[in-house]
Design goal:
This is Protein mago nashi-like protein. Belongs to the mago nashi family. It comes from Aegilops tauschii subsp. strangulata. It is a single chain. By secondary structure, the protein is an alpha+beta fold. The chain has one domain: Mago nashi (Mago nashi protein), CATH 3.30.1560. 25% of the residues lie in helices and 31% in strands. It is built from 3 helices and 6 strands, in the order ββββαββαα. It has a 6-stranded antiparallel beta sheet with strand order 4-3-2-1-5-6, with no helix packed on it. Helix 1 runs antiparallel to helix 3. The longest helix has 20 residues.
Length: 156
């Protein structure tokens, strides 16, 4: 459920603007247990990453790095350009046995949180009750991990 309101955890401002926080999670519970990928950009510049796959008894991968203010500005720009902060997930598919996605963003005094099912393809987007809004979400969550490549974040 999208929620918009004042952010206010007292965190400081990062270079290039007001407070910025982003967290993305995608996962499911299946025959290999709880498998997920999650990452967050924190206002202090810390990028946290976790990937849990129990396939072939893999272990959870957790990494933390500090990114430069320019990386935070680029992530912020991607969010602003997408206009995701104007969307509402009330007509998006509910999480189900296939999985769930969560996206939480704080930019300045705006705070929004989305929850939806895993999206397999654009067909899922086009057949939803809100294809325009879900399309913005779909492309955004695909572009955020690409920021790692664009910004030359060290291998996680």
């Amino acid at each position: 459920m999208a929620a918009v309101g004042g952010a206010g955890n007292g965190a400081g401002e990062e270079a290039g603007g007001a407070e910025f926080y982003l967290r993305y999670y995608v996962g499911h519970k299946g025959k290999f247990g709880h498998e997920f990928l999650e990452f967050e950009f924190r206002p202090d510049g810390k990028l946290r990453y976790a990937n849990n796959s129990n396939y072939k008894n893999d272990t959870m991968i957790r990494k933390e790095v500090f990114v430069s203010p320019s990386v935070l500005r680029e992530a912020r720009r991607i969010i602003q350009d997408s206009e995701i902060m104007k969307e509402d997930d009330s007509n998006w598919p509910e999480p189900d046995r296939v999985g769930r996605q969560e996206l939480e963003i704080v930019m300045g005094n705006e705070h929004i949180s989305f929850t939806t099912s895993k999206i397999g393809s654009l067909v899922d987007v086009q057949t939803s009750k809100d294809p325009e809004g879900l399309r913005i979400f779909y492309y955004l969550v695909q572009s955020i991990p690409c920021a790692k490549l664009i910004c030359n974040i060290p291998d996680l």
